[in-house]
Design brief:
alpha/beta; Rossmann fold; 5-formyltetrahydrofolate cyclo-ligase activity
């Protein structure tokens, strides 16, 4: 089904990914540090014990400086892992400084599947979510795989707070919305925190 909004979504994805990838290494490094500073002053993050994050690919905001600081604060960090038997779904596994990472079929590094390292969504306090673009209403456009749309479906019942992470250049005026899209209550960029509830 290729409605105009689907095509628009593809175009926005391409434009924003291009902007994101055009950033220099210096700009990326500075953005990552600024974001880590902002995140550590964000009350829900300070209060959180179990935090789901992601490792950046394709010009996404580099989360590694933030992860290192969270480890330093003795917070538990979890990374998404593609569910082995439930296609399109994510599991979250504990990520420590000594966790080996292996690329999954999408070439994204993930921890090895180990049931002892697994956390349920109900046990998470905060989930930092990747996105390609967001608008001023908190709508999020992802890569198109729907992994996070499925994960975020019932975030209120699970009791964790989802927060989008993005470069400033990833903000657009408004996004075409699909019925499966889950708007975010907050998005953080290196220069600002956006909150909608």
């Amino acid at each position: 089904m290729s409605s105009p909004s689907m095509l628009q979504r593809q175009e926005i994805r391409q434009q924003v990914r291009h902007l994101r990838r055009a950033m220099t290494d210096d700009q990326q490094a500075k953005a990552a540090e600024q974001l880590a500073d902002l995140a550590l002053n964000y009350a829900p993050l300070s209060a959180a014990r179990n935090i789901a994050l992601f490792l950046s690919v394709d010009g996404e905001l580099n989360t590694r400086p933030l992860i290192a600081r969270l480890w330093h604060l003795k917070k538990a960090v979890y990374l998404p892992v593609l569910h082995p038997f439930s296609p399109g779904n994510l599991l979250f596994l504990r990520y420590s400084p000594d966790t080996p990472l292996l690329p999954n079929k999408l070439r994204i590094p993930e921890p090895p599947l180990d049931i002892r390292q697994l956390i349920t969504l109900d046990q998470l306090d905060l989930m930092m979510v990747p996105l390609v673009a967001f608008d001023q209403h908190g709508q999020r456009l992802g890569m198109g795989g729907g992994f996070y749309d499925r994960t975020l479906q019932n975030w209120r019942q699970h009791g964790f707070l989802p927060v989008g992470l993005a470069h400033d250049c990833q903000q657009v005026d408004s996004l075409p919305v699909a019925e499966w899209d889950v708007p975010l209550p907050a998005v953080m960029t290196p220069s600002k925190l956006w909150q909608w509830e």
